[in-house]
Specification:
Keywords: Membrane, Transmembrane, Transmembrane helix. The chain is mainly alpha-helical. It is 72% helix and 0% strand. The protein is built from one helix and no strands. It is rod-shaped. The model has no long low-confidence stretch (mean pLDDT 84).
């Protein structure tokens, strides 16, 4: 048992450090994944809010019974005149 004990004493610290490293890296990857999902969700909400605001601005100048045309998507402003 003396030889087996010496082998285990030599190998177990390396296995322990490897497991700690694996848990830390796994936690970092999962945290990054959750952060990316949260940012994507916030970006989608922001994009939807801006689109709703843009549609509201476009619809304010048109009577309700007038149909929408493809020209509604054209940006108005200094860059549109270039």
């Amino acid at each position: 048992m003396g030889e087996l004990g010496a082998v285990l004493a030599a190998v177990l610290p390396s296995i322990g450090v490897g497991l700690v490293f694996w848990f830390v890296v796994r936690a970092l990857v999962q945290a990054d994944r959750r952060e990316r999902l949260a940012l994507a969700r916030l970006d989608a909400e922001d994009r939807a809010r801006r689109e709703a605001e843009r549609r509201t601005v476009l619809d304010e100048g048109r009577p309700q019974d007038e149909p929408r045309t493809g020209d509604d998507d054209v940006a108005e402003g200094p860059r549109a005149q270039e």
